[in-house]
Amino acid sequence: MGTFTRIDSYSLRNLNNAEYANFIDRFLALLPLADKPDDPENPDVLSLQSDTPAQGAPSLAIPAETVEQERALLEKLTDLNRETRSSAQTEQIAEAERGRDEVATFIIKHISGSSTLPLQAQKEAGKLMYNTIKVYEGIAKLPVSQETAAIKGMLVDLRKPEFAEAVATLGLQPYMAELERLNSLYEQLVSVRSAERSVKSTDAVSKEVRLQMDSLYDDMTDLAFASNVLNGTAETAAFVRDVNSLVAETRTARNQRGSKTKKEQGGDNDPENPDIL
Length: 277
What we know:
Structural class: mainly alpha
Helix content: 55-70%
Strand content: under 5%
Distance between the termini: 38 Å
Order of helices and strands: HEEHHHHHHHH
Largest sheet: 2 strands, antiparallel
Number of helices: 9
Radius of gyration: 31 Å
Number of strands: 2
Shape: rod-shaped
């Protein structure tokens, strides 16, 4: 066994973006930072770029510029990660789609099956609208974009003056209003998602940012290890020990998350997309 403690070379690509950002944030918090020396030519002038002086870790030979670059990239990744948190939006879209399917199908079946209703007025109302509504049977099975347009057309037909009394007799108004709401919500959510995707591919940008962050992280850990070997102090030894503890904790949490995901999905995670939960 060697004399010197090395920093664990755990592959950060195994982490999704949220885990990765959290790891780098905690890593930076472990750095024994020291204030950047004042400008000897202008000792009384504060930095115009930031309210906080740039900081490096001289005991680890890590320059302030490296720390600053990693912090800036971390902030960028955090913003990108926030933008790509589309799981909630995707679920909203799916929920709106399911809802409009159910309501549209109910309206069609209610009108088509009105011949079995007990009141003669309801039977007559259904008979009046049957030929118009029957063309929309199977609307829930249409491709989603076609379904959006078909629902709009169905609502226009049902709101024709000649059907006003029949719609009231069958009590369809609240269902028509709900169908319109869900269809509009679906269209709006899809439009927002499409607009975001058309502006930029955040996945590609995130990968590039992470590559840059990986390089800086490797530089900092290499410098920290070398400093601990060549000019070791209690401070440098503590840093190496704390980073290894962070790596061990992160690895354990990642393995637990991976095991849970595999059990839920019944298979392995996609190796080509380690950021996908």
